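Quick one, tokens below:
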């Protein structure tokens, strides 16, 4: 099915569509493509909120050891991203360049996700650590074969500057809506509080059901988005002629080719730094919510209401984009979210927030989180839309389209640096914060909680200033992109 043949990899690859689209991309296609955001949202909730907590606080694996294991898996996963991206860029089949990969990944991803949260009963710490490493690797590997081609599709549906943002907006709308509904339902029905475990995320009896739900839902969404977008394959770009057999040397040259774009380099480095810092913060989030703010699972579910913030973002993006450049919106939203993030802990130290357990604290935090979500959603939409624009710039300059390489190289960087963030976060928990294992809410000393709050809420977020500054150097404008696309049309 994949008809690849050797030829000089330096030869420009010509891409054509089987059919020319008349009019706009259908709204249904945007929604169907958006369904593909749900597997990543479910996986991220499982990994970022529950995985380290489960293996460390419930199963007894030291946080530093578990963090190192998760970091190793991230590094290996990062290496596979550009491999899959480059391979799918040149893949030829009757299913197009991307869809076959997405079909193939669905079932293995669900099985491995189930097994990750279903370790053997009574296993030793060494066996648990090995189990965590094995199935984290397999989950990430299978997910790469789905998400890299899925991400690359967004740049292919349309060449219009504004419609590209609309496609990303729908993708994030579906992702946020489904993801936050899943968040609410998980904390309401899968991790309910009890007399023994008011924080249901600490109850080991809740995790088997969580494993089954993940194992069924994730492959379902993968197969749905893949099948429902098959009708778009004739409108997607495919290589006209046979493309080169895959070689690592070719991949390296393709990645270096992508880095000839100064704007891509800026986005790449900025996102890499963001990912490293976010990797550290991600380790602490569930610890802060459970022990510092003392939220029960019945409280945490209401953070699903931050969907209001996401909906606000979707409404604001078209208005903002008519007045401002994409990179201006990106820098502005990230800067405001940084200020609001640091303000959260600062107001506790200034004794402005209501006391823990006061219902008004939850109300204030849901409002705060909704505003932050609105800002970060707008930033995410702009970032993804900018990557699609840079693919056109690269096509004109180098006569080669590299949607897969552009998205996967950034994925490689973010995961590699996030792995360092995970290790740093785990080491900080064990060696600096000295957070005890097996402690319940209210059982951790005040000094320990203070160290946790200062590091998570002030010290680490202050580092975001560096990548935000780098993004101010981005220079591709709307008018420049219109000229680029006009030149591409004339070339055809």
């Amino acid at each position: 099915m994949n008809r690849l043949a050797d030829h000089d990899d330096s030869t420009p690859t010509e891409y054509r569509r089987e059919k020319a689209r008349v009019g706009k991309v259908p709204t249904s296609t945007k929604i169907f493509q958006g369904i593909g955001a749900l597997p990543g949202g479910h996986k991220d909730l499982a990994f970022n909120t529950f995985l380290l907590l489960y293996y460390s606080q419930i199963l007894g694996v030291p946080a530093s050891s578990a963090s190192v294991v998760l970091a190793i898996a991230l590094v290996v996963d990062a290496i596979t991203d550009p491999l899959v991206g480059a391979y799918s860029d040149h893949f030829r089949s009757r299913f197009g360049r991307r869809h076959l990969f997405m079909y193939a990944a669905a079932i293995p991803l669900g099985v491995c996700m189930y097994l990750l949260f279903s370790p053997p009963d009574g296993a030793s710490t060494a066996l648990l650590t090995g189990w965590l490493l094995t199935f984290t690797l397999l989950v990430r590997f299978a997910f790469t074969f789905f998400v890299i081609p899925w991400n690359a599709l967004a740049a292919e549906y349309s060449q219009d500057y504004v419609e590209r943002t609309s496609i990303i907006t729908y993708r994030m709308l579906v992702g946020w809506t489904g993801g936050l509904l899943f968040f609410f339902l998980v904390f309401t029905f899968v991790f309910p509080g009890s007399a023994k475990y008011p924080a249901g995320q600490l109850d080991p009896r809740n995790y088997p059901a969580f494993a089954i739900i993940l194992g069924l839902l994730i492959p379902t969404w993968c197969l749905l988005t893949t099948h429902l977008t098959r009708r778009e394959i004739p409108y997607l770009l495919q290589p006209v002629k046979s493309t080169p057999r895959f070689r690592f040397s070719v991949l390296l040259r393709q990645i270096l080719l992508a880095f000839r774009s100064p704007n891509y380099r800026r986005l790449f480095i900025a996102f890499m730094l963001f990912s490293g810092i976010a990797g550290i913060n991600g380790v602490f989030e569930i610890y802060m919510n459970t022990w510092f703010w003392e939220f029960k699972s019945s409280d945490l579910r209401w953070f699903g209401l931050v969907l209001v913030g996401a909906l606000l973002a979707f409404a604001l993006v078209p208005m903002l984009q008519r007045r401002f450049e994409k990179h201006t919106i990106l820098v502005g939203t990230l800067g405001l979210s940084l200020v609001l993030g640091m303000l959260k802990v600062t107001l506790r130290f200034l004794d402005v927030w209501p006391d823990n357990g006061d219902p008004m604290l939850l109300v204030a935090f849901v409002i705060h989180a909704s505003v932050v979500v609105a800002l970060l959603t707008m930033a995410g939409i702009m970032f993804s839309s900018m990557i699609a624009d840079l693919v056109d710039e690269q096509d004109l300059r180098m006569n080669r389209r590299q949607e897969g390489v552009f998205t996967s190289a950034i994925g490689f960087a973010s995961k590699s640096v996030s792995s360092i963030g995970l290790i740093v976060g785990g080491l900080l928990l064990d060696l600096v914060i000295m957070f005890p294992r097996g402690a319940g809410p209210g059982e951790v000393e005040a000094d320990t909680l203070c160290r946790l709050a200062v590091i998570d809420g002030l010290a680490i977020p202050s580092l975001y200033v560096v990548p935000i500054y780098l993004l101010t150097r981005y220079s591709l404008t709307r008018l420049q992109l219109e000229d680029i696309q006009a030149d591409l049309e004339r070339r055809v």
